[in-house]
Every structure is written in structure tokens, then in C-alpha cells.
Amino acid sequence: MLVTAMAGALWIGTRKGAFVLRSDARRRSWKLAGPQFLGHIVHHIVQDPREPRRLLMAAKTGHLGPTIYWSDNRGRSWQEAKSPPAFRRAAAGEPPRAVARTFWLSPGHPSETGTWYAGTAPAGLFRSKDGGEHWVPVAGFNDHPMRPQWAPGNGTPDGEFLHSILVDPRDAAHLYLGISIGGVFESTDGGADWAPLNEGVAADFLPSADTPFGHDPHCVVLHPARPDRLYQQNHCGLYRLDRPARRWLRIGDAMPRRIGDIGFPVTAHPRDPDTVWVFPMDGSKVWPRTCIGGRPAVYCTRDAGRSWHRLDAGLPRSQAWFTVLRQAMCADQAERAGVYFGTTGGELWASADEGRRWRCLARQLPEIYSVSYAA
Amino acid sequence: MPLVVRIPGPLRSYTHGAGTVRATGHTLAEVLEDLDRQFPGIRFRFIDEQQRIRPHMRIFVNQDQACQLDHGLRDTDQVHVLCALSGG
Predict the structure, then answer these.
(1) DSSP states of A245-312 as a string?
(2) What is the pLDDT of residue A209?
(3) Model pTM score
(4) What domains does chain B contain, in order, with CATH numbers?
(5) Looking at chain B from residue 19 to 58, which residues have their Cβ under 8 Å from any Cβ of chain A?
(6) Nearest to A65 among B40, B54, B87 (CB)
(7) What is the pLDDT of residues A176-197, one digit of tens each?
């Protein structure tokens, strides 16, 4: 659907609560509201494209366990899920697993109204069939005989995340997911069975990258206009995969050498499968994970990764040392797509012209974990 | 006779603001089951799916910390659910 003018909202999940920026139809005027759930660690807030009034939020507090909230009035009020994601009770002799945080939310297939997926730390996949009220483990992944090898718990300091749950718009049973650290996995039977999909991806932190799993995808997107096309921002580079091929192509090799191809997010253009945006970070030496040289920039390809263009007009010119996390960049659906990112320093930046010029919409928010657009 | 359960601030959204409630049971597990029956969802926020007390939560019975849910209770005991000193 081509949209020339649209009012929308940016839902912002932060370390200390949820905020929302609402725009006029021209996306010129934005109004910040919130916080909601002040003091909660909000990892992800996602609109249901099948029922646009419905939103889901993944949250916890420093003390309390993880839960899901849902709204059916565009975020004016929220209800807590009756049974949030939780692993099954461990059998005797089995290592007990408990959800420490629900990290990722993905709406299910357009034909499956009410179906949602959630990814957790430690790595677990959960499904709801009633709009987020009740969640059950996807046993095909959580109890897969290979899961202890795929996701052995060698996660990052904040845990081992399951993220980037992708549903093929042509086939509700065709799913992808990413695990940091573990790799990308694919299911063609609705989650009953899974297989690694990591050929061609580097893993500098392993003795050999020639391994079927154990990689570290930071963010994976399936292009809505060409569902056979995947882009992956990995801990070790930037990749594209055009199915049915199984070998990822390192498109980050075309990035400028001084910038490299390390980062957290990758965001797809709403219609053009050759266009994605990334936010490179410093992955050199001791991995500062900050803007490179203190000069933030978005990079964009319009030819599926053959070339990249720096987009930094309006962004700070120096001494900016933030990070943009994997869920903290998104695009809207407008004819000239809006692109948005939130920073670990609590700033929300927006471009109404596909990244050519940037302006700051909000400052001094808590550390931003996620930014998602709601029409 | 239901015994007294003290509820910390972060969990009072479940108890309609009440800091003290009553629940029935001969063990901590039974009391928390009854608590969850009265205030659905409260238990999972401080007891995980493997029946362990969450890392930043504490439960005291009178003056003594209880680490297991099979802890026996008398009618005169008070159960304190507390948030540990942690955060940032």
C-alpha cells in the first residue's frame, strides 16, 4: 500500500518504561507522551498489522519476572497476559530453564489472526493464538534434540537472546529466527522442526567459522516485498541471502574500510527489496560498540548491498558516542519512507526522506531498547 | 485461619494496592497458590516456572528467610514477600 501522508506513532521501549511519539499526517510535528510503566524494562512494543488497534509489549522490572501486556486501544490502556511465556517444568535430571526476559515480539501470519511469537532469554520460542493473552512453548524448537548445542547458554552478558522471528508472508508454516549466540534457524513446518542456516557467515569468536551454528546474528529481516530475500546484521558482518540459496553473501565488504560492517540493527525499506539501512558501530580492538569516531551515521544501500551511502546530514558532527541497539531502528510505510532510530543515550532521531536529513525528536529519555512504528 | 502475607510495592498492582493480604496453606507453596488464586498473575512475577524464587526477590517467614517453597507454616506465621536491594 502506497501512502503519501499518514499520521503515525513511534513506540519507544526503554530501560525505564515506554514512551510514544505521535505525529501529524505530514510527520512534521511530533508529540511525546509517557512514560507508561515507569521503571519497567521494556524490550519491545509491536503493533498488530492485522488488528491495528492492538499492541503488545514485552516488559519486566529489575525485581519482577517477565511478562507481556496487550492493548486493544492503541496503547491507551494495557492488560497483562494471563499466562506469559514460560518454559515447561523441567523433567528429573534436566537443566531447569526459566524465562529471564521476553526480548522479541513478532505478529504471526496475516491469515492467522491472533497468532504471535515471542523470543526470550535464555533462548526460547513461544506462541500465542489469542492475541498475546496465553503463551505456550514452541516445543519443536525449545525441546529440539539439538537445542542444547544450538543455544548452550554462551550468550552475551545480558543473556542469550532469541530474536528476529520472521514469518514468510506466503506461507504461515515457514519461519526463521535468530539467536545471539547460536545463529539463524529455519522451519518449514510451523515450528515443529528447525535447521541451521548459517553458511557463509563469519564467526571470528570461534576457532573456525566452518560450523553449522554458533554464529551471532544481531538482527535479521525478511524483505516484505520479496520474501525470499533476507538481510542479516551479524556480530561479524553484514549479509544478504536470496533463497532458495543457503549461503549468505557478505555485502558488508562493500562498506568503506574505515567504517566496517559491524552493528546491531538492519531495517528494510517498506517496498524496495534492494534498500536497507544500517547503523555501523565500532567493532574494532576492544569492541567499544559506539558511533565510529564519535560521528554517528546511517548507511544505506539501494542496490542490495553492492554499494553503500553515508547518511549523516543533521546528525552530530563529533563527540557522539552512543549505540543503536538491534530493535531501535525502524521505517514507516510512507511513499517517501520515514526512518527512525533511538540511542542508548535516550535520543530519538527521525528522517522523513529516507535518511537524507535527520532531526532529533526527543532527548533525555532513558536508554532506548526498541523503536517501532505503528500506523 | 488464613495467615498474613505482606506484599511489596511493585506487586501491589495485583492486590489493588493492599500491602497486607491473607492466604491459606500449610506450606509456602500452598499459600502462594492461594495468593495467585485471589490475585491472578502475582505468583509468576516472583516465582519462576521451575518453582524457584526469582533472583532479586526474597521471602521471609516471620524473621527467617525461606528459600524453598515446601517451607512449613503455622496459622500465626507472617509471610513477607520482599524486593531485594538491587537495581540501578
Answers:
(1) --B-EEGGGGS-TTT-S-EEEEEE-SS-TT-EEEEE---STT---S-GGG---EEEESSTTS--EEE-
(2) 72
(3) 0.95
(4) 3-83 (3.10.20.30)
(5) 40-41, 44-46, 48-52, 54, 56-57
(6) B54
(7) 999 999 999 999 999 999 999 9
